[in-house]
Amino acid sequence: MGAKFEIGRIAGLPIFIDVSFIVLVVLWGGQYFTSGSTVLMSMGFLLVVGLTASILIHELAHAVTGHYLGVRPSHVELNGFGGLCYWAGAMPSQAWRRIAIALVGPLANFALYYVFEQLTELSAVQSNRFVLQVTAYLAVANWYFGLFNLFPAFPLDGGRALEALLGTVLSPTTAKLIVGVLGLIAAAYLAYLGLSGSIWLLVVAVMLGLANYDAVQSARRPPWQRWN
């Protein structure tokens, strides 16, 4: 998306951060970091770390599943859209493999939701309000991360899974076109919700709209001009 740099490797897999990821950090922690309160700044730091880790785990779930299902991951990138797992080769031809690779990401978020929910309940029992607020926030965030990624839109996991599923009964071009149109509808809906004052939703709506507009245009081009 923009300039990016490698921050390390996990089991040999390079992890990159795009400068656009800074936008997410500001949206997540800006109000905490500028509060002037040590407690709130600490909370903001933990939230940023927890959300970053949640996105990274989501992408690593894709990478590990892809590796075992026949496609080698190239690297993982954290960016303004959250994150992406890049591949060193073509995706498997079998639809079920592509669907599994796509859906394991949201499943990882739902698993994290469960973990943070358990930590929240434990913190409530111990009356630790600071930890309770952090874990409750991260639980809700992972729940919505998982749901959002199931949207039938590119480049989200739900869109990729639906494209693979439709491709079993329709042509690849038609499958891509259908998901692209659904993605434009999803982007319009998010933009409508964002008009209530959510800059985050408006940014996501624009990025989602552009990605799915490109997909629709690509599917409508002559075969020799299409990209995948």
List keywords for this structure.
228 residues; alpha+beta; four-stranded mixed beta sheet; disordered C terminus
Could you describe the 3D structure shown?
There is one protein chain. The chain is α+β, with helices and mostly antiparallel strands. The chain has a domain at 151-228. It contains seven helices and four strands; from the N terminus they run ββααββααααα. It has helices spanning 21-33, 38-68, 95-125, 129-149, 157-166, 172-194, 199-220; strands at 4-10, 13-18, 73-79, 82-87. It has a four-stranded mixed beta sheet. α1 packs antiparallel against α2 (38-68), α3 (95-125) packs antiparallel against α5 and α5 (157-166) packs antiparallel against α6 (172-194). The chain is globular, with a radius of gyration of 19 Å. The model is unreliable at 224-228 (pLDDT under 50).
